[in-house]
Design brief:
single chain; alpha+beta; five-stranded antiparallel sheet; two-stranded antiparallel ribbon; 2 helices; 7 strands; globular
Amino acid sequence: MSDHNLLEETVDAIESAKKTIADIVYIGTEGACCSWTAFALMADREYDSGFGSQNVLGDLRIIFADHSFLCRREYDGSEWWEYVSLPEIPPVGERLERVFI
């Protein structure tokens, strides 16, 4: 069994993304959200993040002010946070002449 505390895992994921709780603008799913305080109360418990069945909402997101975000990932019941950042806009190069091969 692979026990993890969701709140501790989340704080670690936020720090790994070089963000802070103050950077958060949204925590929730597509249809519902909550404050950091409410999330912390709900998330402060152990769960089995190992293979088996999923425990944490799969569509849970933490969105930061710069529009990067943490999203839940799952494979065969194993669960984790994944940080997604927006790609950098490349410098303007040559004019794009076609979009088909």
